[in-house]
Amino acid sequence: MTNEKTLFRQFCPWIGQPVRVQLQIGRATDGVLYCIDPETEDVALLVPSGQNNSEYSVKIVLAHDIRGVEKEPLCGFTSVGLPTLASLTKELAKGKECDRGEDAAVIHQRREELCQFLTNKFVPFEVVEDGSVRVFGGAATLREPFRLVECGNEQLLRQLHKLLDEFGQLHE
User: Does domain 7-98 have CATH number 2.30.30.100?
Assistant: First the structure.
C-alpha cells in the first residue's frame, strides 16, 4: 500500500467491523477486522471457518500484500453477512452463560462458600466490586465461577490450584 497514511492510522477506527481486504494479487478476503499491528501494519481478521458462521479463525494478512481495505456496508458486495466484533463477543458470552448453567444466585452462594473456605484456611482475601476475589493482597485473583486463578507467581499459582481443588471436592 503506497498511501502516505499508514494502515494503522487509516483503518484503526474500523477495528471490530466487517471489512473486505483487497489483495495485491487481485483477490479479496472478507472478515471482521480484529487488529492492525502498528509496527508491521499486518492485519488480523476473524474469518468464518465453517459454513454456518458460528466458528471463526484468525487470518493474518501481511501489509505488503494489501492493496486496500473497504468497510463492508460501503463495499457493494454480497458478503456472508459478517457480524461486528461486539456482537460476536456478546454471542460468545451468551454461550458461556448457557454452558455453565449457573445463575447469579449460584455464583453468589459459591463466592460465599469460597470466602468461608479461605477464612478457615487463613488465606487473606477481599471481594472486589466486580465480584472477583483477590487473595494475598492482590497477588492473585479468583474470578467467577471461582474455579480458575489469575496469578503471575508460579509457586503461588500451584498452591492456589491445590486449595481450589480441595474447595471443589468439598463443595461439589
Answer: yes
DSSP 84: P
Q: Which of 155, 149, 160, 171 is closest to 123 using CA atoms?
A: 160
pLDDT tens figures, 51-100: 665 678 899 999 999 999 998 754 444 455 677 777 777 776 665 554 45
Residues 6+ apart with CB under 8 A from 71: 14, 17, 18, 19
Cell triple for residue 45? Answer: 481478521
pTM of the model: 0.50
Cell of 165: 481443588
Question: Which residue ranges in the chain fall short of pLDDT 70?
Answer: 1-4, 50-54, 73-81, 92-102, 172
Tell me how far apart the alpha carbons of residues 151 and 125 are, in angstroms, rounded to a whole number.
14
